[in-house]
């Protein structure tokens, strides 16, 4: 549905533009006697007069062109039928036979290499690019041999006077046609999808090759044959030739664009594509119509500038896909006419070489576009630097700034891409999980990337100002004074930043570690900024602590952690038996694959002290930081079960009284005392387990 709508809008817009041109031209002719008071009005009237004059010249040329073409054709027929014409034609055929013969002789040896290239089984994109380049070199070598042989043969003949232009014109047309075909065939490779250098629809490759060759041939005819007609005293015929070639070129390009859009719209992937918010398919036909219309009303200068802008914009729009196509993973097992991309563009952009190549290519396209604009304006490239024109000098400075921007961007890409790739390899950091050995990298790499971006940006701004002739010394001096004033006025800020630099340089804490600061703030390091550190408390609140207020930092997530807890048992139990039972529990925990990887030393126990009626056994183990809490819970569970199996109870929470008269024990009122469990003071879990203590009296 978009394609008929685009055609309708294009036809309506073209008709409206033509009507407006006629209306404005008539209005300008009617207002010749009434000068405008504003400069904009005078410029508009002047532009309308120029457009009217240009269209009048084109109309006159089209009217007078048939007669001049007839005259030129008659003169050419008479010249070719003369003796000099026959001699020139004979020499020309001999020269062509020499060139074609030498090239044929070259291909008797080079054809085998071409067959090897065509039959090679391609397994990677790099191999495909190398083979396509070798194929291009073989074809270019044959074309160079043809050109050199023709050029050398021309010097052996004495050409009749007045016929040299016709000979050189025909040879230039042949060479232009062959060079255009060679470049288009190498880049688009119709029927040889594995050698294709641009990601284009396989069904449209042959169409675009034919379009490029035809448009290149029309441009060559307009550029080469036009001056010959002017020398033959046929200026209207030359102008008519320009009109004919420009019209045919615009029609061919427009037809190719519409055909390409139709093929894409009817493809299989259309069902899964998201409809665009703006009909992008309409832009290319409008651009072509705008360039052709501007050429009609304003001449080649304005149309060349507009075409340069459009071409540079289109290339920049598709350059990312074109460049990344070289590094994409393609399916070379399919038919030669098709190419399947197995790698997403975002995945290719994460590599360094494609990103740098894209930056250089964008800069090169901009430079070529600016150079084409300068040539269109008529400014000699050799005299641009010494020109006194303000606009020209601004363009020169703009070249320098774009060069600085390229160097800065390449340096930024060289720093950013490896950092992003390394962060992606480390994976997402879980700030509430256990710290891993990569926590330091996850802490420092984002800050390094941000610092590099700030430094590169400041250097680019200062260098750009210096390139445009702005003295940056006062700016640097002013920045120094401002920094000094900032240091005096914001001592706390400077203290926080400097303290943070030393905290990070000395590796005091990392993202994901549990720390306690000197101001009684504790929590897991969730993120680190330029001035503060964010600590997530175990109860949920997030504390933002400036580095200058941290003070002494206690890191509970480094290297290892020792956990100790007490087991109260009756006083009559055998200490050695209890020690062996707990030792076996520790050995069984070390044999458990899920628990052993969290423990660094097995669970051990010893008699700690004897209280009235109670023996206190101290248990100890060493584990990775943050794992001691779940290991202690598991140890409690296993010790309880092992003591129960051995018939050993925990100490009762009652007092036992002995009656002196009868000598029999008697239960007294219960008295409970807490035996403190010794553990890390940084424990973010539930309070330690309490056990009753029995006293015997």
UniProtKB/TrEMBL annotation:
Record membrane topology: Multi-pass membrane protein
Chain ranges of the Mechanosensitive ion channel transmembrane helices 2/3 domain: 455-491
Residue ranges of the region described as Disordered: 669-697
Signal peptide: 1-27
Major site of localization recorded for this protein: membrane
Cited SUPFAM superfamilies: Mechanosensitive channel protein MscS (YggB), C-terminal domain, Mechanosensitive channel protein MscS (YggB), transmembrane region, Sm-like ribonucleoproteins
Keyword Ubl conjugation carried by entry: no
Keyword set, alphabetical order: Cell membrane, Membrane, Signal, Transmembrane, Transmembrane helix
Domain Mechanosensitive ion channel MscS, chain residue ranges per copy: 493-557
UniProt family annotation: Belongs to the MscS (TC 1.A.23) family.
Protein name: Mechanosensitive ion channel
């Amino acid at each position: 549905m978009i394609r008929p709508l685009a055609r309708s809008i294009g036809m309506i817009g073209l008709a409206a533009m033509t009507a407006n041109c006629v209306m404005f031209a008539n209005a300008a002719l009617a207002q010749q006697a009434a000068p405008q008071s504003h400069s904009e009005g005078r410029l508009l009237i002047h532009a309308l007069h120029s457009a009217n004059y240009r269209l009048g010249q084109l109309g006159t040329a089209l009217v007078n062109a048939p007669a001049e073409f007839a005259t030129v054709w008659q003169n050419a027929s008479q010249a070719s039928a003369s003796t000099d014409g026959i001699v020139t034609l004979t020499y020309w055929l001999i020269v062509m036979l020499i060139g074609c013969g030498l090239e044929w002789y070259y291909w008797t040896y080079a054809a085998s290499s071409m067959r090897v290239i065509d039959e090679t089984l391609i397994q990677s994109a790099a191999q495909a690019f190398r083979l396509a380049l070798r194929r291009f070199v073989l074809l270019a070598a044959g074309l160079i041999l043809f050109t050199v042989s023709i050029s050398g043969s021309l010097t052996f003949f004495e050409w009749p006077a007045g016929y040299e232009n016709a000979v050189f014109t025909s040879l230039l047309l042949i060479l232009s046609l062959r060079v255009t075909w060679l470049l288009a065939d190498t880049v688009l490779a119709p029927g040889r999808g594995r050698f294709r250098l641009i990601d284009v629809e396989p069904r449209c490759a042959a169409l675009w090759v034919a379009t490029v060759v035809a448009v290149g041939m029309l441009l060559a005819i307009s550029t080469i044959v036009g001056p010959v007609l002017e020398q033959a005293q046929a200026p209207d015929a030359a102008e008519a030739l320009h009109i004919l070639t420009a019209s045919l070129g615009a029609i061919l390009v427009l037809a190719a664009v519409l055909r390409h859009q139709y093929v894409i719209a009817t493809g299989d992937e259309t069902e899964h594509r998201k409809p665009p918010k703006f009909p992008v398919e309409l832009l290319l036909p409008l651009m072509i119509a705008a360039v052709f219309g501007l050429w009609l009303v304003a001449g080649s200068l304005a149309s060349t500038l507009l075409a340069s802008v459009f071409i540079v914009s289109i290339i920049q729009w598709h350059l990312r896909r074109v460049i990344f196509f070289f590094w994409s993973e393609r399916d070379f097992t399919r038919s030669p006419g098709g190419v399947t991309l197995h790698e997403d563009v975002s995945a290719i952009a994460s590599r360094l070489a494609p990103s740098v190549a894209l930056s250089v290519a964008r800069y090169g396209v901009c430079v070529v576009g600016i150079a084409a604009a300068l040539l269109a304006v008529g400014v000699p490239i050799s005299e641009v630097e010494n020109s006194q024109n303000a606009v020209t000098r601004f363009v020169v400075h703009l070249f320098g700034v774009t060069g600085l921007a390229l160097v800065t961007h390449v340096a930024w890409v060289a720093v950013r891409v490896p950092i992003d790739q390394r962060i992606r390899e480390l994976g997402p950091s879980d700030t509430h999980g256990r710290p891993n050995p990569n926590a330091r990298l996850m802490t420092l790499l984002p800050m390094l990337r941000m610092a590099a971006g700030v430094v590169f940006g400041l250097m680019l701004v200062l260098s750009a100002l210096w390139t445009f002739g702005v003295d940056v010394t006062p700016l640097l001096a002013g920045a120094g004074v401002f920094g000094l004033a900032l240091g005096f006025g914001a001592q706390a800020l400077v203290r926080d930043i400097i303290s943070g630099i030393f905290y990070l340089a000395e590796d005091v804490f990392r993202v994901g570690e549990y720390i306690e600061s000197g101001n009684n703030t504790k929590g897991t390091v969730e993120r680190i900024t330029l001035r503060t550190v964010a600590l997530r408390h175990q109860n949920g609140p997030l504390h933002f602590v400036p580095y200058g207020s941290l003070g002494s930092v206690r890191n509970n997530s480094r290297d290892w952690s020792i956990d100790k807890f007490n087991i109260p048992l009756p006083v009559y139990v055998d200490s050695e038996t209890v020690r062996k039972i707990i030792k076996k529990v520790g050995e069984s925990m070390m044999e458990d694959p899920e628990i052993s990887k969290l423990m660094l030393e097995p669970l051990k126990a010893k008699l700690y002290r004897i209280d009235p009626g109670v023996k206190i056994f101290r248990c100890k183990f060493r584990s990775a930081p943050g794992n001691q809490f779940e290991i202690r819970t598991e140890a409690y569970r296993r010790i309880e079960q092992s003591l129960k199996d051995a018939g050993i109870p925990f100490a009762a929470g009652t007092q036992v009284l002995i009656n002196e008269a009868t000598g029999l024990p008697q239960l007294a009122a219960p008295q409970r005392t807490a035996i403190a469990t010794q553990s890390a003071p940084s424990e973010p879990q539930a309070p330690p387990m309490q056990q009753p203590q029995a006293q015997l009296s």
